[in-house]
Each structure stands twice: as structure tokens, then as C-alpha cells.
Amino acid sequence: MRVSDLQAGTRDQASQPDRLRAALRRFHELYGPGAVSVLRAPARINILGEHVDYVSYLPTASLPFGSREHEMLMLFRATDDGQVSGASMNDGFPPFSFALDEEAVEDQSKQGQAKQSWESFVFSRPAPAPHWGNYVKGAVQFARWKFGASVGRGFRFLVDSTIPPKSGASSSSALVALSGAAIRHVNQIDFELEELARDSSQAEWYPGTRGGALDHTAICLARRGHAVHISHCDGEVKLIPLPDSDFRWITFFTHEADKGRDAMLEYNERAAVSRLLIPAVIDDLKRNYAAFDQAWAEALFKLKRDVSAACDEIEALLGLIPDALPLGGFALLDPAIFRECETAFPALAHDRRDRPLKLRDRALHHLGEMRRVAQAVARLKDASGDSQIELAIHTLGALGGLINESHESLRERYEVSTPEVERLVEIVRADPGTYGARLMGGGFGGNVLVLTAAENTQALIDRAQAEFYGPRGRDGLSEGSVMISTPGDGLAMLEPDRIP
Predict the structure, then answer these.
(1) pLDDT band at 7, cuts 50/70/90?
(2) Which residues contact 345 (CB under 8 A, 6 or more apart)?
(3) Residues 325-344: tens digit of each pLDDT
(4) Which of 285, 383, 363 lies closest to 323 in space, CA to CA?
(5) Segments of 109-153 assigned E as strands
(6) CA 471 to chain centre
(7) Once rounded to an integer, what is the mean pLDDT over residues 220-237?
């Protein structure tokens, strides 16, 4: 199969009307005739800033965009029976149903009462068994927690997606955001997309992870022709023009990222280290060493004027934190942080209390991504006057180099790569038309993101097929493991004339 076939086939934006017609027929078969609403969410393609959206001690940022060509559609209809029922056009995801009041969630909309935090609700109960419906439940239960009695109507829905599951392109976050929008829509609750993104990031804690808001913000706020520059410390979002006429973003799917219990522990270990443990160590250094406290404050202040120099100073200071510490050691270092970790990450506290958890390497990855995002944004802002030749030589070359650096850090400092991912990165980087390639997403499998010249797209896909997919008995294009993306719009309700 050639790229031209992919761009005209069943897995891209051009085929959306056909997919909608097929999905609408299936919806009516499942739920009967009547009016249907349709929401669309894009795949999230993250250029730089991986595993930094849950960092609490540095002003980290990310630079994703929403795919114009790859998306998840949700067809839905309100019900008055207090039920949410879901199905997928993918037979690998069986239908399910649950009652709105299946779980007791305290109403946060009431005034003058003690309130249970969402975090307390989520992490005070056992994590549910893995199931795609958990992402819908999370969005619905969060809405019940936030809006209380205003959420009285359920909905029936059907999803159709061209985002490969467990690939690092955030199909799960797209499902959470779509479900959050649907439950608000059927209950006539007004909301802003920024609010939905924040809520969705917390709703996705329901299955047991505790990530940040990168995916949901990109999915909700993406705009055509732009990357979304997300500042995680203050939630500020800026749109950065992203030229796409002569180059392409391609994601090559390697293998499913495991989302079982062991993988959840790996994800949550990194989240706990980033959100709680590294800040606790830094706070301890600040309390006990006045010179460290002053140098840290000055370096953070300098970030506003000279990112490069400030990052050099922060890197030197991070060299003073321990390479690793067991989680149990924090019971003495900072008992409050240890108790918070037990509450937010109970399985981690139970299973890995005595295992040394890496600190310094994780921190250096966070800092490196912060530096790389800042450099990429600066170069893209300066590229508006570039000729096509200058764009390729300077902007794309520099961006590709930063992408390569990000992958090395994800492999060495964050340790989220796999042998299969490394083999695919090696293959695509050997192509002379590749600017850069890296693991994208949570890791432990999933997608490799590649920046290449538009004219090189077919040759690169042929190389990946011949050297990676073919020897494994796979056809990358026909199985949907190759996605070509350009920056498109974020979550939206499709106009009535788009519905067959």
C-alpha cells in the first residue's frame, strides 16, 4: 500500500463521511432511531515535553498538536434511565453499561458542607480491573462529583476511532474528554474547553494512574496549523505557528504499551517521584542550606530572562540531590509527603516501599525537556520569515536534533523505551530524509514520532515496512500502525450538515 492509498483510505479525514454513515447505522441498530449528536477529538501528537506535565517543582512545558487526519468520533444520545451505555466500532472493545449512581460520590456543588476531594475518592478505593469503560466512568463520576444533582441524565454512545489504542497517541485521553463533554451536553451544563481539559486530566486518575493535563489540553485546545505550547506550572496555553507544507509528522506504532498492574506501577513510580519525592528532597536542601535556597530561587527567577543560563544553573543544583532513595526513607525525611504518597499511590507504597527510586536522572530529564521545549518554541517563532530552504536547514534540522535528544533522555534517564522501540528508531534514523525520531507518549511501547521531508514520506514508510514490520509478519499501513499527521483542530461538536 502506498501513501496515496493511506491518505484516501479508511483511516484518515477524507473518509470521515463514510465512517459516520457506517457508525450512524450501527448506532441505530444498537439504540434505535432518533436524533444523534456527534463529537470529534483528535489524536494527540506531542513534539517535545514528554513526562513533564505532572512535575511540580519546575516550570515545565510541552509542545503538542492535534492530528487533522486521525480522530475519535463519539455518537451519543441522552437517556433518562440513569444509565450510561457504550459500544465501539472496534470489536475488540465489548459493549458495557453502568448506572450513574453505581458509586457513592459526594456532591461538591453543595455549599457549606465538608467536601471529599476527588483525589481522596479515587485513591481511597481499589483501582478497577482494566477495561476501556473505566475512562468513560472516570469522566462521568468526576462530573457527578463536581456538579452533583445537575447530572441526572445518562447517555448511550458509540465510538469510532482511527487512533490506535495503547499507542501513545492518547486514545484513552480522547475518550475521557469526549465522555466529559457528552455528560455535560446531555445535562445542559455549560463549560469552556480549558475547564474540560483540566477536569478530564483529573478524571483520568479513575483507572489508577495519576498523570497530568498535557494530552487533554492538546486534545481540547488544538488549532489547525499550530502547535499548542502548554505551560504546566500555570496552565497558560499559547498557539505557536507550525509550518507543514514541505515536511510531515509520521508515527510508527511498535507494540501495545502495557497498561496492566506492573506497568501502572512503573508509570506511577515516575509520577510519585516527580510530583512528590523530588520536591521533598529539594525542600529539605532549601531548609538546611541557605546557599542552595538562594541559588535555587535565583535560577528560577532567571528563567524569565535567560533560559539557557538558568537551566545550566538548575542542572548544577540538581546534581546535589541523591541518585536514588527508597520510598520508605521519606517516612523520616518528610512524613507528610510519605503519607500523601501512600494516599495517592497506595500500590506503589505497598509494593515498592524498600526499592530505591531514581531521583536525579528523572529530574535531569524534566529539566532537559524544559530546555528543549523552550529552544523549539524560540526557533519556530523566528521561522516565520524563513524561505523553504532556510526552514529545512535551520528550523527543521534544529527541531529534529531536539527530538533526537528527547529520545535519548527518555531511554537513558527515564527508562521508558523497549528493544522494539529502539529497533524502529534505529531504522528510521538511518534514512537520510529523517530529521529526528523519538518515542512518543507514556512509553513501554507505543508510537515512534518521526519528522521527515514531505517528499521522503513514501521512502521512509517503505523502509519501515521492509526492515521493521515485514520481518515481524506485519503490514504497517494496512493494520493502521502508520499515521501521517498535520496540525488540526481540537475537540468540537460536528455541525449538523456533517452528520449523514
Answers:
(1) very low
(2) 123, 210, 268, 269, 271, 272
(3) 998 888 888 899 988 888 87
(4) 363
(5) none
(6) 30
(7) 94
Query: Cα separation of 151 and 139, whole Å?
Result: 12
Here the cell at position 175 is 475518550
SS3 of residue 170 by DSSP: coil
Task: Return the amino acid letter for 170.
Answer: S
CB 406 within 8 A of CB 438: yes
Grid cell listed for 153 = 441524565
The CA-atom distances, in angstroms, between 472 and each of 168, 437, 476 are: 21, 21, 10
Contact between 464 and 482 (Cβ < 8 Å): yes
How many Å apart are CA 359 and CA 323, to the nearest integer? 5
C-alpha Rg value of the chain to the nearest Å:
23
Question: What φ, ψ does residue 421 adopt, rounded to 5°?
Answer: -60, -45
| pLDDT value of residue 123 | 80
Q: What are phi and psi of 259, to 5 degrees?
A: -120, 25
Answer for the pair 397, 76: CB distance below 8 angstroms, yes or no.
no
**Is the model more confident about 381 or about 60?**
60
- Give the least confident one: 6-10, 51-55, 492-496: 6-10
Alpha-carbon span 303 to 300, nearest angstrom = 5
How does DSSP classify residue 40?
A: E
Q: Cα angle at 135 between 262 and 91, to 5 degrees?
A: 90
CB 89 within 8 A of CB 160: yes
Q: What is the pLDDT of residue 10?
A: 33
DSSP SS3 for 128: coil
Residue 75 contacts residue 27 (beta carbons within 8 Å): yes
For residues 211, 214, 216, 219, the Cα torsion angle rounded to the nearest 10 degrees is -150
Which pLDDT does position 126 carry in this prediction? 81
For the domain spanning 15-241+492-498, the CATH number is: 3.30.230.10
What is the reported pLDDT for 283? 95
pLDDT on residue 382:
81
Please enumerate in sequence order all residues whose Cβ is within 8 A of that of 305, keeping only pairs 6 or more positions apart, or say none.
none
What angle do the packed helices 171-186 and 133-147 form, to 10 degrees?
40
Instruction: Give the pLDDT confidence of 22-56 residue by residue, as tens digits.
Output: 999 999 999 999 999 999 999 999 999 999 998 98
Strand runs labelled E in 162-314: 226-231, 237-241, 247-253
Tell me the per-residue pLDDT of 274-300, one tens digit each, with 9 for 90 and over: 999 999 999 999 999 999 999 999 999
Angle subtended at Cα 337 by Cα 333 and Cα 341, rounded to the nearest 5 degrees: 125
CB 252 within 8 A of CB 441: no
Q: How confident is the model at residue 386 (pLDDT cuts 50, 70, 90)?
A: low
Residue with cell 496552565: 235
